[in-house]
């Protein structure tokens, strides 16, 4: 692979300015763009985040002076932020961050790292080789020398590994992963993103129990969640397959309970088979990882909480919206009836908050039905279920329900109170639910027809039924305590 990369107009201007400034310093400072940007440029991929490795310790001091220099050229930049190497390090190793010509730039001194019991290293200034060796993979250890305009490969295999699609660590893999177990997840992420073959000795190192178990003990849940999220953005099935093959699922997707994990890869295999025919997104891939926890609960503040939600919220520290989206999928499965033909039955299922978006819930319902009899390969049973849900989707669309479920009711609350001479109460909500069903079953119904139906129901048997349904449920003595 070539040692030169083609810069665009903005990158060329940035490199020229950086080179000119660094040469003016006394003594001159060697500047190298490191890691992901170099890899992406060699792969002809867009990249706007630049890590500039310097031959001096303080990236922050350098960035401040560089920004002052750019001001003399009438170039507007962002303010310079400051990031410490870690809370215990001295200020001379601080990183400087800023935005220049639309590029996100981090300036940091070349460094070496040593680890004790934590994944937070002791950092000191280092050589380019030491800096390259501390990185997760050889393909991420390449440098672009701003002065020579050439790619430097201090590990002596980064370029060949990138060309041959190989994932390998710069140092012996056991050392690399023990120093920082997060690198295991990064290895999986890059292998799935760039379709890399993880070298056998790297795979074997990851499989060692003390190596993989360190993910849960040395890496923060937030960092695990970030890596998992990034895995889902490129080739999620490959990522989930690697997690399964390496025996990592119990160490990545953690909870108070530890069920058998085979349903995770099974549901991922099914989702992959459905992906060309059904709606699929990142939430669904995340749900495959949570499948082993389906129907399990754990105690939180004395209450039963779905274990799947704990995996997402506590095990990965992902957002509340993400947790709810995954948890809702398992709830939506419990109320779906793919054989339904009545318009209001299908429509009210689609309107249920735990079902939205209905396309996602429909896909997941198919997955969960197939997984019950999954043999490891797509068979007649799986195809029969898939066709059933395709027909269900077709029925939904033929009935015009995707648009109908979001239409406002023909009568609002004020109009209902006036028509039936009632005051605001739980009864009003029960009537609105009945009106919603009528409206779904009468897509061409007019407001006037709706009023006639409501009056007839109110003056007939409907009123008693509605009043009964609007009454609060009585709690049997002792029931509240059991809950």
From TrEMBL:
It comes from Kwoniella bestiolae CBS 10118. Keywords: Nucleotidyltransferase, RNA-binding, Transferase. Residues 464-483 are annotated as: Disordered. The keyword RNA-binding applies. Pfam families: PolyA_pol (PF01743). It comes from the Eukaryota. One of its GO terms (biological process) is tRNA 3'-terminal CCA addition. InterPro entries: NT_sf, PolA_pol_head_dom. This is tRNA adenylyltransferase.
């Amino acid at each position: 692979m070539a040692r030169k990369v083609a810069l665009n107009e903005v990158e060329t201007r940035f490199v020229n300015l950086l080179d000119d400034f660094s040469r003016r310093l006394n003594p001159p400072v060697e500047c190298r763009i490191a890691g992901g940007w170099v890899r992406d440029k060699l792969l002809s991929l867009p990249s706007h985040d630049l890590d500039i490795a310097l031959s001096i310790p303080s990236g922050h001091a350098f960035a401040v002076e560089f920004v002052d220099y750019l001001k003399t050229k009438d170039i507007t930049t962002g303010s310079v932020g400051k990031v410490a190497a870690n809370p215990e390090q001295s200020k001379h190793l601080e990183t400087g961050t800023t935005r220049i010509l639309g590029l996100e730039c981090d300036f940091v001194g070349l460094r070496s790292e040593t680890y004790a019991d934590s994944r937070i290293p002791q950092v000191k200034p280092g050589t380019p080789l030491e800096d390259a060796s501390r990185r997760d993979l050889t393909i991420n250890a390449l440098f672009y020398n701003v002065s020579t305009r050439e790619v430097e490969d201090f590990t002596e295999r980064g370029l060949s590994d990138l060309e041959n699609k190989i994932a390998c660590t710069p140092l012996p893999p056991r050392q690399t992963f023990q120093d920082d177990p997060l690198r295991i997840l990064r290895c999986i992420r890059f292998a799935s993103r760039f379709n890399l073959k993880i070298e056998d000795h790297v795979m074997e190192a990851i499989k060692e129990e003390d190596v993989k178990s360190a993910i849960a003990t040395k890496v923060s849940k937030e960092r695990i969640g970030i890596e998992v999220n990034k895995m889902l953005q490129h080739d999620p099935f490959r990522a989930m397959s690697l997690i399964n093959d390496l025996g990592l699922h119990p160490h990545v997707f953690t909870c108070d309970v530890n069920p058998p994990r085979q349903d995770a890869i099974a549901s991922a295999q099914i989702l992959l088979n459905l992906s060309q025919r059904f709606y699929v997104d990142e939430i669904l891939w995340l749900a495959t990882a949570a499948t082993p926890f389906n129907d399990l609960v754990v105690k939180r503040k004395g209450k039963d909480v779905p274990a799947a939600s704990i995996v997402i919220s506590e095990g990965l520290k992902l957002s509340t919206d993400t947790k709810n989206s995954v948890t809702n999928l398992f709830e939506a499965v419990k109320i779906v009836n793919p054989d339904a033909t009545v318009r209001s039955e299908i429509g009210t299922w689609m309107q249920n908050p735990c079902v939205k978006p209905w396309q996602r819930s429909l896909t997941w319902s198919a997955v969960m039905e197939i997984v019950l009899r999954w043999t490891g390969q797509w068979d007649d049973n799986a195809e029969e279920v898939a066709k059933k849900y395709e027909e269900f989707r077709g029925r939904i669309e033929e009935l015009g329900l995707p648009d109908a479920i979001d239409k406002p009711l023909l009568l609002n609350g004020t109009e209902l109170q006036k028509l039936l001479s009632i005051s605001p109460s739980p009864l009003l909500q029960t009537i609105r639910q009945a009106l919603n069903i009528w409206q779904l079953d009468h897509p061409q119904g007019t407001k006037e027809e709706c009023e006639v139906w409501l009056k007839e129901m109110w003056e007939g048997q409907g009123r008693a039924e509605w009043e009964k349904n609007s009454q609060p449920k009585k709690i049997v003595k002792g029931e509240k305590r059991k809950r």
